[in-house]
């Protein structure tokens, strides 16, 4: 839905593409990349990277996320 919404908009500072990353645990990840550059300050960017649902990249990121989320969605306390 978001993809369709963005596709119908003319955003002059929007760049889209894909990015391949190699993670030592999750393996190779291919992520869709959307970056929006601020017109007020071009040094500022919002970059969003998402995997395609149902792909090994999606599974790899879900696996990594499982390391930091405790049951019921609360972050684990890692302080000694």
Salient structural properties:
80 residues; alpha+beta; 3 strands; elongated
Question: Your description of this structure?
Answer:
- By secondary structure, this protein is of the alpha+beta class.
- 21% of the residues lie in helices and 34% in strands.
- The protein has 2 helices and 3 strands; from the N terminus they run H-E-E-E-H.
- It has a 3-stranded antiparallel sheet with strand order 1-2-3.
- The longest helix is centred in the last third of the chain and has 11 residues.
- The radius of gyration is 16 Å and the shape is elongated.
- The N and C termini lie far apart (43 Å).
- The mean pLDDT is 81.
Which regions contain 5 or more consecutive residues with pLDDT less than 50? none
**Rg over C-alpha atoms, rounded to the nearest angstrom:** 16 Å
Q: Please report the number of helical segments.
A: 2
Note the beta-strand portion: 25-35%
The mean pLDDT is 81
Distance between the termini: 43 Å
SSE inventory with pairings:
Layout: H1 2-7, E1 14-23, E2 27-37, E3 45-50, H2 56-66
Antiparallel strand pairs: 1-2, 2-3
Summarize the structure.
By secondary structure, the protein is α+β, with helices and mostly antiparallel strands.
């Amino acid at each position: 839905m978001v993809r369709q919404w963005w596709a119908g908009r003319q955003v002059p500072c929007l760049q889209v593409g894909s990015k391949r990353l190699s993670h030592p645990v999750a393996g190779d990840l291919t992520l869709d990349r959307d970056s929006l550059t601020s017109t007020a300050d071009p040094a500022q960017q919002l970059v969003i990277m998402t995997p395609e649902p149902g792909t090994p990249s999606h599974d790899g990121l879900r696996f990594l996320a499982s390391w930091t989320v405790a049951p019921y969605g609360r972050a684990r306390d890692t302080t000694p």
